[in-house]
Amino acid sequence: MSDAAPLTNDEICLSRGTDLKGVGCTRGDMEAPVLLNPERRMLKVMQAKGNHTWDLDGILSACEWKDQAVAVGAGHGLTNHGLVTTTEHVRQTVKLAPEGVKAAAEGLLEHRLWAWIESADDASMAVLQTSFERHEAGPGVGLLKRLGVQLNQGKFEAEHPDQVTAAIAQRTAFIASLPCSVEESDSDMLELFKSRRGLIEVIEHTTRTWTMTEQGQSVEGKHLEEKVAVAEITAELLQSEDWKNAEYRAFDVTLESSTPHTGRSHPMQALIERVRAIFLEMGFSELVDDYVQTAGWNMDALFIPQDHPAREMQDTFYLENPAAISLPDDLVKAWGDIHEHGGQTGSVGWGGAFSKATSEKGLLRTHTTVNTIQYLAKHPNEACRVFSVDRVFRKEAIDRTHLPEFHQIEGIIMEEGANLQMLVTTLKTFYAKMGYPEVRVRPAYFPYTEPSLEIEVKWRGKWLELGGAGIFRPEVTEPLGIATPVLAWGMGLERLAMLVLGLDDIRQLYISDLEWLRNQPIL
Ligand code: PHE
């Protein structure tokens, strides 16, 4: 890097390709490849001696290196750039293996046995077995037999003892001649000893010599200045001016690497954050409220009849503690009037007798509408856009698509002139921002909204129901003193998560399957 101009990202990437022949290796004047420091040093040393053929020792001492891998690597790099020619010589050497070292010192097994036979008074198998260990006697006799020694009535005999002695001497000489190169060694002996375990081994050495090419000679000295290579970009580096002239160490993006598993949000939490961000961006404020509630707020306020099946014990978690939470008399009276005969709304109500005790029952909220309705009761005259993403509870049998505890995305818009069109547009906008542009609504029924609708989203070619919505009925708004229209919706978060994460079983979200969790996309 000859100039001091700041590097752009592209330039940094280019200068990383140093190992790739001809790919992005040049910058500045187009002729000079960007070399690694060892390559620079080696080429510089070679340029000083022109046509010389360098061997490893020569390079190591001239470059003042101890590690031959550095020299071999640099030579390889320079060769890739066409600046140097590498000649490889592969040499095979025969050398003694551990058993061979022992044989060279103590004599080959056949040598020792034959010496014993020649000097023994009684060269019989029986005596041999007392003079040699079992593991030597057995194989030793085999060796001798192949050399022409026979067992005759228990005694060792050879027809041509001189030949046996000579053959053994030849073997001993071979062992003594090692190490030597494969080419120089006696090929018959080599084959013989290769077939015996642990006596010899053949080792390959690759030696290299390097000569510089004309192109190598022509690289200008200024390109051979060694620079400190930066392997890690640190804050210090960026704060100092050094980064401008620094050399950045090459890294190979195609290498396999381990995936770092750092802490991260649970996909469900990440999804909640995304939903939040979208509503906040759309001008809503968030409502966070308790999940211990009264049946009064959870149901009566929403004009759900007191004998509605959804109120049954098998659908709703009623609490033992608190079993009842007291409610103001006037509120209960207002709800009672509405339920019994429609209050001042012109509605006929549900009829029957309204029960305060039923109203005061403690329960775990079955929907987050219980919170938005209380928000409205507290702020009946202020236009608002409020949302919540929170947990609700229903006595559901757990299966692929149901959990007793799940989340709803709830929201209301109270505003003069708010209408159905606005409700549909708001929901469509939300889902479009979530990445689901195809949304449709269908007529539905909820006791507390009129009109009521169901929201469906197209996913993998199918329409999936994700929630309910509507405009609060006068039976809901009037007892609370609300005069402006209120648009309201409640949508399943887990259902949405199934789409976003491509799940076919909702339980996957909560089983803490680490492998699965690690592989989830960042939402
Ligand atoms: N509370 C409804 C449910 O739990 C959804 C809903 C909310 C419908 C608001 C209309 C208005 O499914």
How is this structure best described in words?
With 523 residues, the protein is α+β, with helices and mostly antiparallel strands. The protein has 4 domains: 9-83 and 213-248, no CATH class; 95-199, no CATH class; 266-289 and 382-523, BirA Bifunctional Protein, domain 2; 292-364, no CATH class. Helices cover 37% and strands 20% of the residues. The chain has helices at residues 9-15, 37-47, 56-63, 68-80, 98-106, 109-119, 125-131, 134-146, 161-177, 187-194, 214-218, 235-239, 267-281, 295-298, 329-341, 356-359, 369-378, 420-434, 474-477, 493-501, 514-518, and strands spanning 54-55, 84-96, 149-152, 155-158, 180-181, 200-212, 229-230, 247-248, 285-286, 292-294, 362-364, 384-393, 405-414, 439-446, 449-459, 462-472, 486-492. The strands form 5 sheets. A 7-stranded mixed beta sheet has the order 9-12-13-17-16-15-14. The chain has a 4-stranded antiparallel beta sheet with strand order 1-6-2-5. The two termini are 40 Å apart. Mean pLDDT is 90; it is low at 1-30. The site of phenylalanine has 10 residues, from strand 16 and strand 17.
Compile the SSE list and pairings:
Elements: H1 9-15, H2 37-47, E1 54-55, H3 56-63, H4 68-80, E2 84-96, H5 98-106, H6 109-119, H7 125-131, H8 134-146, E3 149-152, E4 155-158, H9 161-177, E5 180-181, H10 187-194, E6 200-212, H11 214-218, E7 229-230, H12 235-239, E8 247-248, H13 267-281, E9 285-286, E10 292-294, H14 295-298, H15 329-341, H16 356-359, E11 362-364, H17 369-378, E12 384-393, E13 405-414, H18 420-434, E14 439-446, E15 449-459, E16 462-472, H19 474-477, E17 486-492, H20 493-501, H21 514-518
Parallel strand pairs: 7-8, 9-12
Antiparallel strand pairs: 1-6, 2-5, 2-6, 3-4, 10-11, 12-13, 13-17, 14-15, 15-16, 16-17
Helix pairs in contact: 2-4, 6-8, 13-20
Phenylalanine (PHE) binds next to β16 and β17.
